[in-house]
Design brief:
mainly beta, 11 strands, single chain, about 250 residues, elongated
Length: about 250
Amino acid sequence: MKPWLRLIFVVVLTTASLQAQFAEGQPVLRGAIGPAFSYMVSLDLDDAAFAALSSFTPAFDLSDVTNTTGINSSGMVVTGFEGFGEVTPHWTIGMYAGQGEYIASTQDAANVDYTVNFVLSSVGITAEFNTHSRSRLKLLAGSLFGIGQANLTASSFPANESWNDIIGGGTARKAFELSAWTPVVQPYLGMRFDISRSMGFKTIAGWNEQVAAAGSWKLYHNKVISDSLEVPLRALFFRFQLYVIL
């Protein structure tokens, strides 16, 4: 069984177990599911860890904001999906998965195309305490606990490569892909509002605590880079979810 399927299975069993313990003969408590959209307000690639990108191509010198577009933006849009279920009148548990990216590309005077793409993904279990489950408006506090992956790909290639050049490796094309697994903790505060008996929305503000440890980066998901640096991926975030009540 794949790790993420095992995780979903554990969440379902845990939810059922907690409902059996706490419902105490009351009607079955509700669940909800729907898309979630986040905005990382202050997420930047670490200048020190990725300084060598300026050797790959000067167009991506992270220390020079005026010379870099896209990849050095301080904001990242994250799209995802979240489901949660009430296990007591005031507590819910659920699961969230999301992914966001930076992407930038440019072309130099010799018609060489450069592309840099940074992807950040996370999946985890959420636990929330809300003010009153029978009210349409609920104030809440909670946190996500899970794992994430940071992925950086960069490539450069001439604009007019022929088929034989590509297949035979006869050009100056170069590329690499780096990735690292990270723990993720996201404490947050927010509110939930049931628009009707069948749908509602949730909005939260929180902090993304995520750090790729030194030596944890791999080349092409395979070769460990033992001297890779620690890369902090901390950021303030806002998330909005539109959910369907089950």
